[in-house]
Amino acid sequence: MLRRFAKVPLAVRVLCPVAAAVVVAGLVVVVCGRAAEVAPASAAVVGQTAVTGPKVSHDEPTSSAATTTTTPPSSSSVSKSSVASTSVPPPKAPETTKRVEAPWFADRVGTATQVISVVGAGGSNATVSTWRQAGGEWTPVLGGVAAKVGAPGISGSYGESSSATPAGVFAITQAFGRQADPGAGVSYLRVDDQDWWVSDVESPDYNTHQRCARGTCKFNERVSENLWEQGAVYDYALVMGVNAQRVPGGGSAFFLHVTNGAATAGCVAVPADTVVSIMRWVRPGTVIALR
Q1: For residues 223 and 265, is the Cβ–Cβ distance under 8 A?
Q2: CA 206 to CA 189: how far, in whole Å?
C-alpha cells in the first residue's frame, strides 16, 4: 500500500486530502441541515399527541392575545369512549322487599295471631281466607275461597229473628261434626241424634249445646237445632262465639260449616275440604272476623 502511494505525483498527494476534507465538511453541513428540518416536524408531532394546551405557530410572531386551539380527540379515543359508555350497564337501584299490606281486620283482633277472614261479596256470597301473624307481620295462609252467608249478607244488625250473618270479630270456641275428628286444633265433639243447639229464647240454656233424646228435652225442640238431623252440612263445623253473653234474642247457633250451595240462616258455609283444612289449622285463641 505504501509503495503504491509513493508513485502518486506530489500535487495529487497534497490536493486529495484537502478535497476530501472539503467533501466531508459539505456532507456534515447537509446532514445537519436535514436534521434541523426534521427536528421541528418531530416536535410538532409530539405537540399534537402528547402536549395539551395552546398551540403556538412558529411561522408568525407570538403575542399575548395568541389564539388557543384544542386538539380534537383522535378517532381511536372516541371509539374507546363510546364502547366504554355502552358496555358498562348503569347502576341498578337497590332492591326492596315488597311487604304484604296489613289485612282489613289488623286493628280489630287484639292480640290474636290466627284469623279467619270473611268478607261479603253481595247478597249471600262471600269469600273466606285465613291469616297468621308473626313478628308484627300478617301472612295469608288460605286464599280467598267462595262462601255462602245469610241471604241479607253480613250485617251488624243480626239476631234470632234475622238470617243475616253477624259482622264483627268473634272467638272460635270449639268444633263438632257428624264425622270423626279430622285432627281439629281445638276441642272436637262428634255428635249423634241426641245433640242439640238451643235457640229457645225462653230457655236458660239459650245458645248452648245440650244433649237429650227427642221428645224429652226441657227446651222448645221446634225452634232448636238437632245437630245430627241437619245432615251433611254439619259433617264438620266450627262454633263462632256470637252472643257469648247469651242475651235472649241476641242470636244463636252461628257456625262455620259445610256448604250445600244455598244461602245460610246466618252461618258461614264453605266446601267440606276447606272446613277440614281450617279445622286442622285453628288453635285456641283463633278468631273469625266478618264484614
Answers
A1: no
A2: 19
